[in-house]
Design goal:
The structure is a single chain. With 58 residues, this protein is mainly alpha-helical. It has one domain (2-57). The chain contains 2 helices and no strands. Helix 1 packs antiparallel against helix 2 (33-57). It is elongated and about 45 Å long. The relative contact order is 0.19.
């Protein structure tokens, strides 16, 4: 159950990253600070989720 929740969390973060990167590359907004923030914040979050996944396997 816990690994399933972690997997869903990873997929959610990756979908949000994909949306943020799509806005950055194709959007016409004057600023992309929130999109860049999402990408930067997601990297440590994905690292934490990977660590939790690895730890739950042991």
């Amino acid at each position: 159950m816990r690994r399933g929740l972690i997997a869903v969390s990873v997929l959610l973060v990756l979908l949000l990253d994909w949306a943020a990167l799509d806005d950055i590359t194709t959007g016409n907004e004057p600023g992309y600070a929130l999109e860049y923030l999402m990408v930067v914040v997601s990297l440590p979050l994905l690292g934490l989720l990977w660590w939790l996944w690895w730890r739950s396997a042991a």
